[in-house]
Specification:
By secondary structure, this protein is mainly α. It has 18 helices and no strands. Helix 1 crosses helix 2, helix 11 runs antiparallel to helix 12 and helix 13 runs antiparallel to helix 15. The termini are far apart.
């Protein structure tokens, strides 16, 4: 069969699931302003919840190929496009001390995810999701990490739970962490670093930082983007951990997914072009469009994840899941505050 002949069949096979996932994403975007009147819940979490509610419909065989495509393929490239949000020049301005503090805190948090999961009788897979989601950037990191984990029973429910949990914890942190910084006695710079290095999701980092002041918000967002940049080594480290029974070189090669390399390459491209004022008229519109594509792809992918997750599977998760992800949140907070007290 030729490519020309098979393409319409492939599109026809994927279209129902992609269409349903996209409909969930559109519904989430439409509902977000109304939901925000009651609680600061981002569209990604709303898409996940809508998808879970529609799981009985999504179980139909016609929807499955498209849903799998969204979760496994579309998600990877939507995450790769996140690289365009990062400019290395801004991150270099953080200084070596701040960068090292963030790296150490993230590493400790990632390891704590595994240790806490084991302590409470959970799998290393859940520990990787909780650790990465907390250490890097919440929902996006959780989704990216899920793509390098092997399929296992309950994976969809674990991913969905971590996405919901890190958003809830980020919202609590957005409210509590600024007063905590004032209580400790941090100045504007240290407050920005603390907020950017500890709160999980970018939106809540910005909300917490700019609620204090513009300088604090700017510092917090830059620190947060540094954590997003470190998504690349975190994903590679997680993939390597589960491949390590292989010979070292073989495991290392297999643990570097293509989308992570694209993510890193786009970071470099964005850094170079952002430093060239003459490129702005052409580059900025392209960057904006690709940013919308990335956001839309993530929304569709997380909607598809929800469609593949049953309510009963999420409801069956017990207190151990809550304690593990809460524990990683406390670990990164403690590590960052201790570090700032030492270097501040």
């Amino acid at each position: 069969m030729t490519i020309e002949a098979s393409l319409p069949q492939t599109v026809g096979r994927l279209a129902p699931g992609i269409g349903l996932s996209a409909a969930v994403a559109v519904a989430a975007v439409g509902a977000a302003p109304l939901v925000a009147l009651a609680a600061p819940i981002p569209a990604m979490v709303i898409a996940l919840i809508i998808g879970i509610a529609l799981n009985p419909l999504a179980k139909r065989e016609a929807f499955q190929p498209g849903i799998v495509f969204c979760v496994k393929t579309l998600l990877r490239w939507a995450v790769a496009l996140l690289g365009l949000r990062i400019a290395l020049g801004e991150i270099v301005a953080l200084g070596l001390g701040t960068a090292l503090l963030v790296i150490v805190a993230m590493a400790v948090t990632l390891v704590s995810g595994f240790l806490l999961a084991r302590a409470f009788g959970q799998s290393d897979y859940y520990g990787a999701l909780a650790g990465a989601g907390t250490a890097v950037c919440g929902a996006s990191a959780t989704l990216a990490t899920s793509t390098v984990l092997p399929a296992y029973k309950g994976k969809e429910a674990d991913v969905a739970f971590v996405v919901i949990a890190v958003n809830a914890l980020s919202t609590v942190a957005m409210v509590l962490y600024p007063p905590l910084c004032a209580l400790i006695g941090f100045d504007n710079t240290l407050t920005g670093v603390m907020l950017g290095a500890t709160i999980h999701d970018v939106a809540q980092v910005a909300g917490a930082g700019y609620a204090v002041s513009e300088p604090v918000g700017n510092a917090a967002v830059i620190v947060k983007l540094f954590r997003v940049l470190l998504l690349f080594p975190v994903v590679v480290a997680v993939a390597w951990w589960f491949l390590r029974p292989r010979p070292p070189l073989s495991a290392l090669k297999a643990s570097i997914p293509g989308f992570a390399l694209v993510f890193l390459a786009l970071c470099l491209v964005n850094s170079a072009l952002s430093a060239m004022p003459s490129a702005a008229p052409l580059y900025q519109p392209v960057k904006t469009v690709l940013g919308y594509i990335s956001t839309g792809g993530l929304l569709i992918a997380i909607g598809a994840l929800g469609l593949g997750t049953s309510i009963s599977a999420v409801a069956s998760l017990g207190w151990r899941h809550v304690v593990t992800v809460t524990g990683t949140t406390i670990v990164i907070l403690a590590a960052v505050v201790a570090g700032l007290l030492i270097i501040g």
